[in-house]
Amino acid sequence: MGRLDDKVILITGAARGQGATEARQAAEHGAKVIVTDVLDDLGADVARYVDGDYHRLDVTSSGEWNTVVERIVADHGKLDGLVNNAGIFRHDTILDANEDNFHLITEINQYGVFNGMVAAAKVMREQNSGSIVNISSVAGMRGQRSVAYVASKWAVRGMTKSAAAQLGQFNIRVNSVHPGAIETDMLFDLGTETIDRLVGAVPMGRSAKPEEVGNVVMFLLSEESSYVNGAEIVVDGALIAS
To answer: Which domains does the chain have, with CATH numbers?
Structure first.
C-alpha cells in the first residue's frame, strides 16, 4: 500500500526539476499524477513516465486553471492534492531593478499560486477534503538580494496562512515548503561562485537532492499530516538557522 494510493494529485511546473521529481515520487506512492506546465514536450514525457495525464497550464491564467481543474474532475471525479510548484527566479536587486521582471515574477510565483488555490478550493470544498502544498523558499523566510523573488515568496508564505485559516473548516489543509540550496537548474544557473558561497553557509555542509524536498511534499499530501495545517516547513540544512 502506498501513502498516496487512489489520490489524484496536480503538480504545476512538473516538466522538469523539482516538479518532475515530485511527480515521480507521487506516482511511486500510488497517486494518479496530473502533470502541468507550459513546456509541452517535457511535460508529456514526464506524464508518460509516471503513467499520468499532461495538461498545458499557464499558472497566471485563471481561465486555464478552471479548465484544467474541470477536466481533472470530469476524468477522475475528484482532486485530492495540489502542489503549487511552478516558479521562476531573477537576480534583480533594488539597485538594478527591472520593472518587467518584477511583474513577471509576481505573476508566476505569487498570482499563479493564488489562482491554483482558488481553483482547487472550489472542488476540495465540495468533497470536504484536500491538501494544498505551496512551494515557497528560504527567501520567503528572510531577506535576500533578489527583491522581486523575495517579495513573491513572502507572499506565498502569507497566502498559505490565510488560506489555511479559511479552508480548515472544509477539511482542506494548506501548507508551505521553503527549500534552500536544492540541486535543480534554479541552483545551477547561479554559477559556481554563488553556489559555493551559498552551500558553504549551510551548517550541514551540502546542498540537497530534489527528493529531499519531495519527501516533505509527499508527507503533506498524505494522511500522515492530517492535522498539519498552516505550517511552514523549511528544508535547508539549517541555512537560515545559523
So the answer is: 8-180+214-241 (3.40.50.720)
Q: What is the pTM of this model?
A: 0.95
Pairwise CA distance, residues 140 & 134, whole Å = 12
Please report which helix (H) or strand (E) contains residue 233, including its range: strand 232-235
pLDDT single digits (tens) 35-65: 999 999 999 999 999 999 999 999 999 999 9
Quick one: 61 exposed, middle or buried, by C-beta within 10 A (0-12, 13-18, 19+)?
A: middle
Element of type H or E holding 44 = helix 40-49
User: How many whole angstroms separate alpha carbon 122 and alpha carbon 138?
Assistant: 29
197: buried, middle or exposed (CB in 10 Å: 19+, 13-18, 0-12)? exposed
Active site residue 149: yes
